[in-house]
Amino acid sequence: MKYGGILVTGGAGFVGANLAIWFKERFPKISVIAADNLRRPGAELNLERMREHGISFLHCDIRNREDLEAVPAEVDLVLECSAEPSVLAGMCSPEYVIRTNLVGTANCLELARRRRAALVFLSTSRVYPVKAVNAIAFRELETRFSILPGQSVAGVSERGISEEFPLEGARSLYGASKLASELLIEEYGEAYGLPYIIDRCGVLAGPWQMGRVDQGVFSLWMAKHYFGSELTYVGWGGAGKQVRDLLHIEDLADLLAVQLSDLERFGGRVVNVGGGAGCSLSLREATSLCQEIAGRRIAIGSEPENRPADLRLYITDTNRVSGLTGWRPCREPRAILQDIFEWIRGNEAKVRHLWA
Ligand SMILES: NC(=O)c1ccc[n+]([C@@H]2O[C@H](COP(=O)([O-])OP(=O)(O)OC[C@H]3O[C@@H](n4cnc5c(N)ncnc54)[C@H](O)[C@@H]3O)[C@@H](O)[C@H]2O)c1
Fold this sequence. Notes:
The chain is an alpha/beta fold. It has helices spanning 14-26, 45-52, 89-92, 94-115, 130-134, 172-192, 217-227, 249-261, 263-266, 283-294, 319-325, 333-346, 348-355; strands at residues 5-9, 31-36, 56-59, 77-80, 118-124, 138-140, 145-147, 156-157, 160-161, 196-201, 203-205, 231-234, 243-248, 270-273, 280-282, 300-303, 313-314.
């Protein structure tokens, strides 16, 4: 990699800390700085392992442009991984969501512009409008909902949702703040020649994800099974048939390494990134796998009512990104859950307070 210094915003979060360590391990000569305000409960647990890997930590609130002035001069690549990533957060703290997810990205863009740095933006499948995604024709199978063949809307097929999917309609404040950030990034690309990557990610999963009911569902599922506590199937009739594809964090890192190897060729556009149709789970299916891996059953309640902005099913169509880069996700659902299980087992005392 040709970069001298990488700034990872949200660097103590699940994605940020894993990427910071991944890049530092593979490119030890590059200095890596993780910047975070430690808002996410559990983010502080990442500080020790980042220190062990030679990653510097900058306590920084992305909402404040001045906080970024402490970023060292050698930084020529910004991985923008900071966010309030919960779809539900916008319901109670809209200002925090907008100021972190949108103003924060604008602050990163200004930093990148002034430093002539490249920017990688972790966007989200949540940019696609909620009503339109929930209007996708589906069938109900024994353990999951599934997309029907022969859809009438552009950008959706049995492979999942592609970049052609219509963007008209509301998408949650989280999704809106991320889409607005994408637009700003494209403008900086056009106006200032700023090199960028925008990866619209579906559900990401893996070790060191401090999963909660409103974000990080697969690590939450594994953790609750591990510690023997309770879970609830919420929404869509309460039967746990809602479906998401999932992508292991290391598969994402593999993709970023390819994209960053040639930004001229692979950057400057939006791609949907996820595990795809071959790597998806309903909650019920996740329960079965977690039971097998953890070796125990836990009580799972049922609440039929949907939460705001929830989706019945979302699968990423990865055709564009795979066609462009040759990248394909390698890890399957069982391996991803197993990896999360091993991480919790190896760090039980440190993480117990989050879930037990
Ligand atoms: N995890 C997923 O499934 C997923 C899917 C799609 C996109 N993304 C995107 O990936 C990125 C990382 O998400 P994540 O899953 O690691 O979430 P996370 O909550 O684990 O990490 C986000 C980090 O940002 C920090 N942060 C929040 N507000 C901040 C602020 N004002 N200033 C500085 N730091 C702040 C938090 O403390 C946290 O450490 C986000 O941009 C998110 O939108 C995540």
